[in-house]
Amino acid sequence: MSDATTTTPRSFQEIILRLQTYWAARGCAVLQPYDMEVGAGTFHPATTLRSLGTRPWAAAYVQPSRRPTDGRYGENPNRLQHYYQYQVIIKPSPPDLQDLYLGSLAAIGIDLALHDIRFVEDDWESPTLGAWGLGWEVWCDGMEVSQFTYFQQVGGHDCKPVSGELTYGLERLAMYVMGIDHVMEMPFNDPDSPIPLTYGDIFRQTEEEYSRHNFDGASTEMLFQHFKDAEAECERLLAFDADDPKSGKRIVMAHPAYDQTIKASHLFNLLDARGVISVTERQAYIGRVRALAKKCADAFRLTEAGADL
Amino acid sequence: MPDLLIELFSEEIPARMQARAREDLRKLVTDGLVEAGLTYASAGAFSTPRRLVLSVEGLTAESRPLREERKGPSTSAPQQAIDGFLRSTGLRLDQLERRADRKGETFYAVIEKPGRKAGEIVAEVLETTIRTFPWPKSMRWGSGSLRWVRPLQSILCILSDETGAHVVPVSVDGIAAGNTTEGHRFMGIGRFTVTGFDDYVVKLKRAKVVLDSAEREAAIWQSAHNLAFAAGMEVVPDPGLLTEVAGLVEWPVPLMGRIADDFLDLPPEVLQTSMKEHQKFFSVKNPRTGRIEGFVTVANIEAADGGAVILKGNRKVLAARLSDAKFFWENDLRVARAGMGEWAEGLKAVTFHAKLGSQAERVERIAALAREIAPLVGADPDDAEWAARLAKLDLRSAMVGEFPELQGVMGRYYVLEALQTNPAPDLIREPAPDLIRGLGEASGGPGSSPGRASAIADAARDHWRPKGENDSVPTEPVSVAVALADRIDMLTGFWAIDEKPTGSKDPFALRRAALGVIRLVLGNGVRAPLLGWLRRAMGRHVSDTLEAGQDLLSFFHDRLKVYLKDQGIRHDIIDACLAMPGNDDLTLLVKRAEALAAVMKTEDGSNLIQGFKRAANILAQAEAKDGVEYSFGADPKFAETDEERALFAALDRAEAEIAPAMQAEDFPRAMAAMAALRAPIDAFFTAVQVNSDNEIIRRNRLNLLHRIRAVCSGVADLGRIEG
């Protein structure tokens, strides 16, 4: 499985391209990022919703992810409020998923004979999605490079069959593979390109802008209102009769409702970064988002894509 | 006599679950085999991150045939009864035997169970074991419904005897047992066949797997020690970490690195915790500087470059971690130097319990209580109050946020820093002006002398102790005052809102808190009526403190009984002392119980109980019959025998001895004086008939018995002692 001749990638995008090629060759549908603000690749409906029901599924995609509280104005070498995750989701989880994963590490230039790869217990839980699974964080020479999870429950539903989920923290992994100490110094495209761009060329300014926005700029009043709106809209959409009079079809609006759940979750994260949510309120907000996620999961199970075959 | 080898090969098993899993596998399989009629000579279980293994030696080749005979109903019994017997035995009527007996004829069922082959039994037992294995957390995978800790990939199950190794035919959820396995994930040699345990161990080692975790532990420790020794350093022992790391690798390869100079000034506890919790590194100490200057990481692979890349990577990860820690440390020191007001403010926003208010409110209560307790433990009330106010502030520090296990340890550093910068910080005036009472400038502030500052800072660290049964109790008076106040506030608070522990449920660890109070009081010989403390503290939560206070005191008494039982003092001896007044002074109570336990071990002591009980019984019967209490002074002039006169004299002596001894709380002396009554009491009962025909003499004797009861009852309630 290890290919000792694999060269070290020269840029951030080369790592992404190699992962895309690798997983495409293993039969995954290579999807594009979801067009909404999410906290992690797991929120993409290709993972959350598609891990429900019995229909087989295999997808891989990059997902830009936002963690407003992690903003460091572009100064911290490892922390970003906007970063990329690479996500692989396969249902049912294949018996050789660990080997497939290790193959992907080799594909991006990690020589498995030279590095110390370890699967260290880490139980994954997303209180906002009502989801949990068992698996590991994968260590490479003591550094966590991926999350490896067998989904047991999503949106309060048992996962049958079980999906296997792989999440790579792309910046951290790329920095490690290329030996870069500060994320902003990492080549984004090939350093020999006519116009070489670093990660900092692309994201330093936005990290500053969003850090200020997340911690001081965003209107909390508006955020609170939008949270309520998203919550209400989600429930309103799910309350529709499944029979659509116009098309004459049975249409459950699970995805549009789920979009509102994603919105509510991100709005909550922003409010959290603004420091206006107390410890006790925090649990209540997480519970409200989870309630939405569960309802969306219930609705998706009534659709063709989410039903049991 | 075949040998059995089982290997359950899976994806990585969490390290913390392996020891328990080994024991469960051994027990479940061997119990199952024995229950099915097999015997075995020995069994051993092993684990690596990817396999759980059981080797059973000297197994019987088949189970003994069993013949079971059951008596049924009479042959003339109603059909219903006969049908019932047939159902329960699973036989037909013509299979039953009829035997004549005294009552006529009775049905008998004779069930023959032939011996079964070991393989058949092993297959059943193994399948049941896998399907019911008690993992603390288990999962499903793929499309299957089997649960295991992580996906189970293959099963090796062979019985080996002189004819060779035979695969036991068992299949669980599509995984059929075989006679092959594989070695190390990266250094293995593909799948290989196994013929028995010895062959298995040898081949595994060739495939770079050390099967026995104890062997891996020893190898890690030896190699880590050698690496450090060669560099003039020493590894800090950590048995828990050693066990964990041995559960993370199949082929341990320790590597040593140095911590970058930038981080060497961090507190050693921070370095150790950061390295251990996040990276599973051992700390390496330089004996010349006394500092933690290096680390040992344990890789799972013999890398082609001797581990250079692995070590470099680990060093880099550590540097990133320690940069965070250093950032927290420097930020926290800045807040500490500014008087920690930011953290005090922050505690207001932290809810301790919905019904018990914020952490800040709790700190207020602890501070007031610590002040009250201080004089009784020899602490200065001002210092105790200060310490209580400062002791919980580190909960808001960035470092404790990152490493909760450093609570207290960091508190000590930060309090010292705060008091060195400003001996009388403002903090205390802000939240509670009415509690100043001579603090601050008037007393020179808590940091006005190095001794006071360090006692107050130590309390931030030590008021958490004792953390568990094996942790010692603090002895510094300020720490003791805060530690007691902390726990008493917690217990009285939860009692006031009726959140007491029930059965196995004790979500707030109140039993541990009560045991903490008991150990703090006893360990420091604190003399004080506990009930008063409890009621005063309870008064901060509810107005009616009498009933809840008494209830909490009985909870303490229950915990004390458990505690003393562990120290070898019988529960009835404790009961005899609990029945005495002043039972909320735990130190006194235990002194009394210890003295009583000691005297009960003597012959006089244990025999005295018989005499005492005899006297008490006769007296109780007479009092019930006559409807009077015999407590009127007995008069020696009515004594008829020498034994009677001797008892009078002995009681006089005992009374003269016991009263001052009790006054001086010299329980051993009082108990010895009491035990000296044994001989005269025994002699009295042998020679004297209490129920004399002469009513005057009878009454006098009953009054004499009353003196026995009275004298002894001044020492302990002997009626509660068994035997």
TrEMBL record, chain A:
SUPFAM superfamilies: Class II aaRS and biotin synthetases
EC number of this enzyme: 6.1.1.14
Reactions mediated catalytically: tRNA(Gly) + glycine + ATP = glycyl-tRNA(Gly) + AMP + diphosphate
GO molecular function: glycine-tRNA ligase activity
InterPro entries linked to this entry: aa-tRNA-synth_II/BPL/LPL (IPR045864), Gly-tRNA-synth_heterodimer (IPR006194), Gly-tRNA_ligase_asu (IPR002310)
Localisation per UniProt entry: Cytoplasm
Pfam families per UniProt: tRNA-synt_2e (PF02091)
Keywords: Aminoacyl-tRNA synthetase, ATP-binding, Cytoplasm, Ligase, Nucleotide-binding, Protein biosynthesis
Superkingdom classification of source: Bacteria
HAMAP family linked: Gly_tRNA_synth_alpha
Known partners and oligomeric status: Tetramer of two alpha and two beta subunits.
Protein name per the record: Glycine--tRNA ligase alpha subunit
Organism: Rhodobacter calidifons
Top-level taxonomy: Bacteria, Pseudomonadati, Pseudomonadota, Alphaproteobacteria, Rhodobacterales
Gene: glyQ
Automatic annotation (TrEMBL), chain B:
Catalytically driven reaction(s): tRNA(Gly) + glycine + ATP = glycyl-tRNA(Gly) + AMP + diphosphate
Intracellular or extracellular location(s): Cytoplasm
InterPro entries (alphabetical): DALR_anticod-bd, Gly-tRNA-synth_bsu, Gly-tRNA-synth_heterodimer
Pfam families according to UniProt: DALR_1 (PF05746), tRNA_synt_2f (PF02092)
EC identifiers of the protein: 6.1.1.14
Start and end residues of each stretch annotated as Disordered: 439-458
Highest taxon, organism lineage: Bacteria
Broad enzyme group: ligase
Main location: cytoplasm
Subunit structure: Tetramer of two alpha and two beta subunits.
Recorded family membership: Belongs to the class-II aminoacyl-tRNA synthetase family.
Protein's UniProt name: Glycine--tRNA ligase beta subunit
The encoding gene: glyS
